[in-house]
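Shipment paperwork, digital attachment
Item: protein structure file
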Amino acid sequence: MKTLNSSPRVVNTVFSLLLLVLISGCASKYPTLEGGAPPVQVTPDYLVGAGDSVNIFVWRNPELSETVTVRPDGKITTPLIEDVPASGKTPTQLARDMEKELSVYVKNPVVTVMVDGFVGPYSEQIRVVGEAANPQSLAYRDQMTLLDLVIAVGGLTEFADGNKASIVRVVDGEWKQFGVRIDDLIDDADIGANAYMLPGDILIIPESWF
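Attachment content:
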């Protein structure tokens, strides 16, 4: 019966092949997302989302004015008015809807809606998962960059592999994944790696293999 040749030369060859496989597996298979010209303003108006705190002010009717939180179902309830859809609307659109509802009880109501908290609808939020110091969902802000996002989540953990991070986003109706170079951006001040974010992006930060 033949036995496996365990000479140092064979062991070194096997180890080299395994290392090559591991390195190849770690290499990003996604196109790299680099910095460039700022995108056009993609959210010209803020959209109310579940969890937002909205201040409903009814002119000359303080008893009808109230600050409420948008419920998980996207609706709000105020004095005299129940279950008004709010999520996905601009504050101005919500104000006009409230005026229409209140007109049943008040002559020519004038409503102003002010938003606090700025959670926004899920479709507009940016999510950070993996080896971030504080993984979370954040409301998108116009012209937000990768650097802004990393700062907002408190940076990366000591186990993160920032240059193997990726962004998942919807492009032409399909989910696509792009590599980003966070380590180059943070450690080497490579501004070319500072890509612009878009509403609905998901930043995935993996753990380093070594």
